UniProtKB/TrEMBL annotation:
Signal peptide, first to last residue: none
Source organism of this protein record: Anguilla anguilla
Transmembrane segments: none
A GO MF label: DNA-directed DNA polymerase activity
Domain of life: Eukaryota
GO CC field: delta DNA polymerase complex
Lineage: Eukaryota, Metazoa, Chordata, Craniata, Vertebrata
Name of this protein: DNA polymerase delta subunit 4
InterPro entries per record: DNA_pol_delta_4 (IPR007218)
PANTHER family attached to this UniProt entry: DNA POLYMERASE DELTA SUBUNIT 4
Any single biological process term in GO: DNA-templated DNA replication
Amino acid sequence: MGPKRRLITDTFKVVKRAKKEEKQDKEPAAPEKEKDLLELQQFDLDWRYGPCTGISRLQRWERAELYGLKPPQTVRDLLRRSGEETDYTHCLWHDYPL
């Protein structure tokens, strides 16, 4: 009988490395922001709440609420949570001269 075949792991032990959790924490932030912005864009495209040019999204939401149009509460919460970030405050058509 010939010599016993040895495995490479007999000489070099397998060492499992710890996964970095920092990258996992940062990755969901971008898709969440994209999801939020998509919801705000849908609010901009819905003409039931009036025109969105010339005013901020929060002003448009408040105006729609004043006239009893029942805009989505999630949009208001999203706008309040985002603060003064221009991606959230300005409407979809803000960059275009209308």
